[in-house]
Amino acid sequence: MKRREGTYTAKLRARAEDRLLVKSGRAAAEGHDTLEASQRLVHELQVHQIELELQNEELQGARAELEAGLARYSDLYDFAPIGYLTLDSSGEIHRANLTGARLLGRERARLAGMRFGVLVSPESRPVFNTLLKEVFESQTKRACDLELWPEQSAPLWVHMETAVCDEGGNQCRAVLLDITERKLAERLRQETEGRIRAIYDHLPNPTFVWQHRATGFVLTAFNDAAHAATNGAMSNLLGRSAAEFPYGIPDLVLDLGRCFEQRVSVRRELDFVSPVSQTRGRLLASYGFVPPDLVLLQTEDVTEQRQNEDQLRAAQRMDAIGRLAGGIAHDFNNLLTVVINHADFAMEEAGESAPVRTDLIEIRKAADRAADLTRQLLAFGRKQVLKPQVLDLSKIVGGMEEMLRRLLGEDVEVSVLLAPGLAKVMADPGQVEQVVMNLAVNARDAMPKGGKLTIETVCVELDEAYSSQHTQVKPGPHVMLSVTDTGCGMDETTCAQIFEPFFTTKRTGKGTGLGLATVYGIVQQSGGSIWVESEPGKGTTFEVYFPRELSANETAGRAPPLTARVAGSETILVVEDEETVRNLARRILGRAGYTVLAAASGSEALLVCERHPGAVHLMLTDIVMPQMNGKDLAERLVKLYPTLRVVYMSGYTDDAIGRVLDPGTHFIAKPFNAADLTRMVREVLDETPPDQPSSGSSLPSQEIR
Length: 705
Fold this sequence. Notes:
By secondary structure, the chain is of the alpha+beta class. It is 44% helix and 21% strand. Helix 1 runs antiparallel to helix 2. The relative contact order is 0.05.
């Protein structure tokens, strides 16, 4: 800049000197200069001198302003909030401002001659190379986003805008703007949206997104579950209106509008036809508003859940009825015990020829029928006494085949399919026979004009899927007993009630309604389950599942030992809170020669024993009594009488005292007659004494209430 200013001043000086020389020559040519001409020349020289000085001052001011402007430009260039680079077509850096050097993590001096591409991440390098090529070929502006890997600092993102900056088109100016925060925010948004989308896609229930528009609601999105639920047809439904939705959801448009307009969630359960299986079921539709114009619809097939709930309610109802039936049967058994035995006493005293004997016989028959009914009620209520054995269902059914053929008649074809080598189950053989008998009789009644009855045994494995559909079934190995008839069949309403006591489709006087209730109770008490499948006009199949017994071998039932005599002289303690039964037992045992002590409760029995001077050989006690149950009483008395024998009696046994009698426990069920009681007592007294003191019971130890 100084060189330019010196040249300009020299030119002015030379020009003034030339003018003076011309004028001087002109004066000499005119004949030597005069004083006047000299004075003019001196004056002009002074004027030119002043002009030169003024011009020099102007030049000095312009120089100062130019230097100040250059300084301001340098500050703006270096300290601008964005980076500036000058690059050639190979990507070599020729110049950079301080901000650019800071962004690139290098000192400005080190950047000169460095290729910009080495600072770009491998993922962004192809983008940069393409940008550099296009900007020099097209001589137009180009822009892109690049990820940089500065030296000794974290990676960052920049937005680069480039344009050719010289006349020859050999260099371009690159502007760098730090957009790291924006990129991180975008990446976070994308990751969040991705997670939300993943959650949305993996929701187990079909989910649809409806957008509200001027023309109505339009389907804009759906998840994978919705895609699967419609066999992949959802892709063709995007953009379709709710009114055109082909998978009929009742009141879809109305519920979408209500949710959108009132900004409230809407939940509805409705009947639904599956688009895949075309079966009817129950659908739970949940609508939720998503501002500003979306409604989220989530559907859930609750058919299986509602079926399970119905099964659970039915099971709870059956259990409640069973408890009621068991309680009634227990009280009736106490009454029937008295009626039966007093009828027997009366017939003994009346003699064979007494006119009243006929009436007494009818009373006895009626009492026996009532006892049968109470036994069926106890079976339904799962409160009867079982004596289970490890047995083969095929042997049980096979042994009944001939008897079933005679029972069902010639017009019913009986087919028995027994699996060889069938796995064993733990059950009471007499009760299993009762199950088969009742199901066969029920099938015969469903085939008044004849038909075919098929009884089959087979090993099955019940999986989790089957267990989830049948609330009372535990998965695992089972043995199935199925009874199928070709009768009239039943509708769903009848199937739902057939196991309830006293429910019957027969006309009045033709059935008690306890046959299938008895089957249900026996199967439940044996740890099994029973299900029925039937349609009107297509027959009925009952499937009974017993858990497979994986431990012991089959055991044969032992007949109770026969005892010739029933009388004795031992001392027996009778403990019974029901006075009529207590007096009856005392009378029966007293007539057989025994010394009988009686008590109405456990505490009274202890007091009676303390006052009795001799031994007590056997205790006949009710199981369920107030204050102290029979087992607790036996445990206390065995300390006083180590060889004491115990016989329990009850109208039923519930879960608190053990559904199944363990070996060594002596039990007599009510109602009983005098012969049964005296025979039981004699058999127990005649047993070999135990090696260790025992109460004669292995009943559970929990308190009985």
